[in-house]
């Protein structure tokens, strides 16, 4: 058997470089890296060879430098989401804090079912220098390292303590990342001495391989049962989740809903699977849901989930659906398909909808078209309300202003705070024009995520909505975007604190405390110049004092070759659904049973009344 002598790190890079998609691209496009002891001497040298040497032949394997391990991983995750899980990126860190910085990002990818390869530097397999710098020691288990923190937040974990472990670990990693049901992050904890060890690798190990993403067919009995339930329903409604997009089933869903006259509500991950202009798109579901969608779901005798894990925001903490309503769940994974006592149809979303449509024939539901039109009119009115003299704009008014200058190529993105709920309610995207990380709702995803989307879809305009709180948590990848000339637009709404949680605190009977700067234990309220801060990293940065200035700055950003940050002051007072014709729904946030003021006692009484409506089946 012919062999080639390489270090384990060199073998990893060479192998990753020949794992292909059916379209001829690399599945792992490249690797984000922050080097430190634990990966600089082994993997760092291999990545240099992969980019500048002949390790990867005539197609160099790229390495990109980030500013923080968590945020460069966020960029990789956003890239994979924007690519519909058909391509991914890898991220490497040193041992110790560099590795544990990535754990939050791994959890984000895991919750959202998104592929990313984490290559974390690890301790010495030979244990000669133990305890090595930054090593976490378990007094009772010598096999534990800091990287064991990844175990609950990745789909596959392996510790590479011998070079030949890669012969099985790498194919297993790609199998997980390309599996439509078990897709998620992988962590290969790579012992630093092993990275540098040489081994005689079989040449056939580096034969290019194409990874196809399968489309599982539905079970015939399940298909028949679900078709019968739909035929027997008078008022069915659909909830479309991210699985619709990952299946590439957007057009199929639109055709299914139109042919059978079934209204479609959206989750955060499923929003823009159908354009808002689609006549069967009734808007957002649940806690941050539209009046039309929630009315359709609460009156439905059959709710059909497609590619959704039925998170609490989607179901109004299990209080949205009518008592006695049946639930069907079409999902690629049996775990998700069986939630809430649903009748399961385990299959690829596109295949399942096609086969269901054929089985349903000329069946049609009864959507309430006037409710949809009334909802959209309410959205337009709310978003186009002029700012009163002397007042700051609301989030809705900011969204309306941005919407007015958006194009079919615009992607609105966000992750945490007030804006996700407001955007889900109010943003009216073209198909594919929305990107929200709300499975983990991770503050700090926004700026890095916007960069990842733009890397995946360079032809699209990316507009990142971020509050001042999230911006303060993680903004350093602006510098990376400047260095790499990656243009996107950041709309930074400054309400001077954690406005979203301040409203939640008030809504659950609490006194304003520790969220807005004005309510914190501080000597002076900070006066942060976000324009100067962003400009110091090389971004184009401006302050918009009016909505008209905001719109002009967005138009101007389209001619830039680097990121633009537009700062606008907003009010912290109103919630996203205020005045929107019954929009929104209850959310289960536990309220203290006892307290010392009437506001808290009233909030607890409301909590008990709402919680009594929850469906308890799993």
UniProtKB/TrEMBL annotation:
Molecular-function GO term, any one: acetolactate synthase activity
Location of the Thiamine pyrophosphate enzyme TPP-binding domain: 417-568
Its domain of life reads Bacteria
Residue spans making up a coiled coil are none
List, alphabetically, the InterPro entries matched: DHS-like_NAD/FAD-binding_dom, Myo_inos_IolD, THDP-binding, Thiamin_PyroP_enz_cen_dom, Thiamin_PyroP_enz_TPP-bd_dom, TPP-bd_CS, TPP_enz, TPP_enzyme_TPP-bd
Gene Ontology cellular component list: acetolactate synthase complex
- For this entry, list what GO says about its biological process: inositol catabolic process; isoleucine biosynthetic process; L-valine biosynthetic process
Q: Which UniProt keywords apply?
A: Thiamine pyrophosphate, Transferase
Annotated Pfam families: TPP_enzyme_C, TPP_enzyme_M, TPP_enzyme_N
Ranges for the Thiamine pyrophosphate enzyme N-terminal TPP-binding domain?
66-135
- Domain (Thiamine pyrophosphate enzyme central) spans 224-356
Q: Gene3D superfamilies per the record?
A: 3.40.50.970, TPP-binding domain
What family, per the record?
Belongs to the TPP enzyme family.
User: What name is this protein filed under?
Assistant: 3D-(3,5/4)-trihydroxycyclohexane-1,2-dione acylhydrolase (Decyclizing)
The record lists the organism as Gemmobacter aquaticus
């Amino acid at each position: 058997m012919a062999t080639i002598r390489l270090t384990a790190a060199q073998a990893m890079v060479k192998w990753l470089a020949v794992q292909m998609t059916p379209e001829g691209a690399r599945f792992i496009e490249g690797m984000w890296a922050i080097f430190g002891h634990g990966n600089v001497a082994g993997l760092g040298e291999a990545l240099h060879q992969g980019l500048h040497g002949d390790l990867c032949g005539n197609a160099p394997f790229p390495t990109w430098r980030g500013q923080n391990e968590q945020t460069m991983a966020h960029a990789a995750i956003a890239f994979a989401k924007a690519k519909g899980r058909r391509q991914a990126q890898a991220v490497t860190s040193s041992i110790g804090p560099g590795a544990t910085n990535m754990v939050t990002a791994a959890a984000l990818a895991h919750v959202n079912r998104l592929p990313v390869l984490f290559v974390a530097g690890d301790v010495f397999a030979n244990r000669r220098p133990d305890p090595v710098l930054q090593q976490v020691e378990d007094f009772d288990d010598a096999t534990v390292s800091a990287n064991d923190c990844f175990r609950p937040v990745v789909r596959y974990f392996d510790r590479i303590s011998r070079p030949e472990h890669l012969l099985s670990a790498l194919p297993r990693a790609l199998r997980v990342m390309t599996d439509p049901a078990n897709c998620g992050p992988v962590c290969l904890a790579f012992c630093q001495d092993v990275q540098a060890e040489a081994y005689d690798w079989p040449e056939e190990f580096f034969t290019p391989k194409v990874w196809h993403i399968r489309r599982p067919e539905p079970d015939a009995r399940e298909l028949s049962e679900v078709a019968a339930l739909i035929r027997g329903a008078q008022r069915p409604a659909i909830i479309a989740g991210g699985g619709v997009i990952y299946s590439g089933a957007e057009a199929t869903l639109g055709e299914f809903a139109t042919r059978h006259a079934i209204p479609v509500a959206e989750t955060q991950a499923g929003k823009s699977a159908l354009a808002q202009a689609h006549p069967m798109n009734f808007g957002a579901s649940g806690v941050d849901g539209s009046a039309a969608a929630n009315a359709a779901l609460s009156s439905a005798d059959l709710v059909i989930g497609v590619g959704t894990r039925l998170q609490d925001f989607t179901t109004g903490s299990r209080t949205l659906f009518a008592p006695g309503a049946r639930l069907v769940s079409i999902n690629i994974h049996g775990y998700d398909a069986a939630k809430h006592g649903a009748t399961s149809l385990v299959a690829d979303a596109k295949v399942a909808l096609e086969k269901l449509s054929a089985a349903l024939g000329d069946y049609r539901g009864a959507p309430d078209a006037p409710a949809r039109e009334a909802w959209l009119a309410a959205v337009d009115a709310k978003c186009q309300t002029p700012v009163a003299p002397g007042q700051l704009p609301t989030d809705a008014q900011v969204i309306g202003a941005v919407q007015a200058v958006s194009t079919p190529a615009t992607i609105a993105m966000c992750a945490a705070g007030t804006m996700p709920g407001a955007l889900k309610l109010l943003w009216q995207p073209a198909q594919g024009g929305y990107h929200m990380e709300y499975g983990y709702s991770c503050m700090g995803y926004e700026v890095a995520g916007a960069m990842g989307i733009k890397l995946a879809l360079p032809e699209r305009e990316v507009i990142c909505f971020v509050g001042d709180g999230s911006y303060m948590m993680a903004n350093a990848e602006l510098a990376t975007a400047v260095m790499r000339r990656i243009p996107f637009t950041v709309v930074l709404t400054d309400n001077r604190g954690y406005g979203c949680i301040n409203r939640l605190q008030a809504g659950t009977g609490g006194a304003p405390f520790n969220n807005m700067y004005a309510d914190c234990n501080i000597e002076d309220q900070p006066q942060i110049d976000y324009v100067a801060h962003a400009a110091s990293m090389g971004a184009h940065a401006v302050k918009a004092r009016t909505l008209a200035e905001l719109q002009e700055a967005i138009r101007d950003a389209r001619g830039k070759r680097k990121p633009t940050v537009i700062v606008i002051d907003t009010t912290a007072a109103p919630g996203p659904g205020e005045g929107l014709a019954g929009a929104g729904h209850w959310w289960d946030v536990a309220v203290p049973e006892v307290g010392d003021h009437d506001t808290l006692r009233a909030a607890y009484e409301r909590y008990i009344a709402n919680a009594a409506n929850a469906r308890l089946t799993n």
